[in-house]
Design brief:
By secondary structure, the chain is α/β, with parallel strands linked by helices. It has two domains: about 120 residues, Serine Threonine Protein Phosphatase 5, Tetratricopeptide repeat, CATH 1.25.40; about 220 residues, Rossmann fold (3-Layer(aba) Sandwich). The chain is about 45% helix and about 10% strand.
Amino acid sequence: MRAGTSIQTDERFVSAIRHHEIGELETAVGLYIELIDDYQDNLELLQRLGYILAQLGRLPEAVQYLRHAVDLSPDAASAWYNLGMAQERSGDSDVALDSFRRALACDPNYHLAQNALAELLLPYENYMEVLKRFHRWLRPTHYLEIGVESGASLALAESPTVCLGVDPEPQIQFEFSAPTRIFEKTSDAFFADHDLAEELGCKTVDLAFVDGLHHFDAALRDFINIERYSTPATVVLFHDGIPLDEATSARERKTTFWSGDTWKIIPLLKKYRPDLKIFTIPAPPTGLTVVMGLNSGSGVLAEKLDAIVDEYLALDYGYLGDAKDEMLNVVYDDWASIQERVATYRRASE
């Protein structure tokens, strides 16, 4: 290192960053490599160099510099994340998974690593794209959404679908093309105060999407209420059916990326309602679960509600063990196969 010189004030570093920002990557790489001779243990330099080499497809070099970065600072989540990204681009998915998990061990709230881990673990389209596919394929006459938030998912419905959204604090940022009404209240309050059939102007709902409190017992109550207005062909979709890890699937929120314990709805329904047809699409970031074969006359879940909730409150992420896919009915089908699966369930219900 040059005597009395900090990398932040080194003109070569300032110039390298400027070239990097305007897309002159080869020039930036040359300057970064030149700087390595003087700042070989500088974490920021190592990460910048590794990142840009990965951008250029020079992956073995990128991994080399990023490995040095994690050796130098094993507690730096960003270093592990950048290493994982280079490893993934190199085709070393298993090694990349380990690096992303190490990043999260350093910082459980490191959202870039959480998203990268989800994309690797769940090899399918984002759940919003899958939800859009369901809308365009099924063309539901009546659609119910619990957990509207910004309105992004509700906006996927297309006219003439009649839509009803329920959310205690919606923050709508999207325009709706379908006729839509939103009730600003909890789903429990909505079902206590309103008759869904009257609000929809139809006795049953064709498609429902549940993405509310991220608590399994709330999702269970929503399912019980929805089933009262269902037919065996009704499709109910649950978001967050595949927990990413223990930290992000905790019942109480401790991380920005959070799916809660909604996943428990799947083993719960499998146990107490074996008549239902259930499968989970590995759509990032946390899966999309499909439930069909509903029975509006069933009272099993409502009658045993308190006991069921007590039973599943006692379970945590470790309950899934090494059998996550089996216990959550995860299927690795393409869209055509998913369509056939749903169509088969519908034919069987006729």
